[in-house]
Amino acid sequence: MASIRARLTTTYAAALAGTMLVFGATLWIGRGASVQRQLERYASAQAEVALRLTGFVRRKAKPGEPVQLTEVRDTVVGPTVVPELYTLLEALPEFILVVDANGQIVYGSREARLLSSDALDAIRSSAPRLSPSTVGHADIDRDTLDPRRRRAWEARGLPRTDQLLIVRRNADTTLAPIGYVIAGTSVGPSHRAQTELLGSMLAVAPFVLLVSIAVAYYLAGNTLRPLEQMRSELEAITDGRSLHRRLHLESTGDEMARLGATLNAMIGRLETSFGGLRRFTADASHELKTPLTVLRANVERAMSSPQGSSEQLVALEEALQEITRMADLVDSLLTLARFDEGRFDLHRESIELEPIVRDVYETAVILGEAAGLEIAMPVLEPATVLGDAARLRQLFLNLVTNAIKYTPTGGTVELRLDAGEDTVAFTVRDTGIGIAAADLPYIFDRFWRADRARSRRVLGEHVSERGGFGLGLAISQWIAQAHGGTLTVASRLTRGSTFTVTLPLIGEQVLPVQAAPAAYAVHDGAD
Ligand code: ADP
Q1: What is the pTM of this model?
Q2: CA of 164 relative to ligand 1 center, distance in Å
């Protein structure tokens, strides 16, 4: 159980960590893109302001008076913006470059003046490739040669190298000779915002993970506890002696409760089948023990009697009877064992029931005469079924001999064979002792007899009426079912019984559910 709990917890932790990772990455990318857009808008606004300031200076000129936007004060430096425009542009806080139509930088803001000349040149030369609608990035380094400038950027805490987001805005023709303006802003804040976000996520994530894992571990343990409890209860029950016990079930109706109910049902079936097996073994041993005891007594009696005396002969004859009886029992047990195993020689061929029933009737007449009974067969209709003639004969004879055995002298036993549309019914009705309603559900159980004491031969006493083993009806019912039919009984105590075998007529036979196709395999006859 510990392993399921651990597995659940680790799976949960891995899923949570993965989710957090995806969530963090999405947040990180989103945050970066949002800051980038802000910087872009900011740089564009700067460029716009620079152009408007330039336009403002131009509009200030009196009508007809030409206003210069640039002038050459230093022939080495080349043209620069006029002082008025310079003063206005100096108010802008960010990186601004004003470039004339010749590609000459005529103004560089304070930020721009802190850059190395290489960096400035790189930006200027890349500017023509920059379309007015796009933004570009420029890696820059700040001036380290001029100590004054160096002190200036160091004092402001700016790094030596940086990356600028730059935009270009073209000046219209009224602003000639100004060509375009480049405005830029450091992308540092964007990176800083992302780094700060990552930092806070990293600070919180372990805590969230740990708390979640602890909660998951606790929940998994809580969920699996009933399972563990069920396992230990099951262990106690299935030790072989406690099958009467059942699992304790919560009335929650959840999966555990349903599993418990299923297991309880299974334990119930196990208990029934174990009980049946135990009873069967006990009954079989008991049934064998009685004739063995009788046999032993008889053999001892024969040995102690004078050689060839009539007493010795009687003892030996009784011993032989017991041996025959034991052989019958073993034969019945073997038949049932083969049925259970699905290994029996049941032939399937088209057979006429009429001659079989007539034959059984003739046997019944002989037996009935000896028992002082009237045997009748008012109906005998022709019927053909698919099956095993020997087994069906055994089935009919079982019912008839039972009827004769359990009907006192003077009674009647009636046999009928009624052919219906799809089925044929063989009925044996007697006016015998009958079966109590409470006993009816058990009469097909193995070794079941209504009155054991009457059926059993008591040691040392001669009981003329020899009871069976209580296996005949179990075998009969099995034969009926193996033919896709049924064996039913209706009986009232002291009023008599009616046993009815119903079999499907040929062409109507449906394979019985219990008898798998292998059950019809012809027995190899090895035993
Ligand atoms: P047995 O060999 O003991 O007759 P069966 O399985 O044939 O075994 O029958 C089981 C029990 O059912 C019998 O012991 C008897 O009590 C009862 N029984 C069977 N047939 C009849 C019947 N025709 N009338 C009354 N009781 C019957």
Answers
A1: 0.55
A2: 108
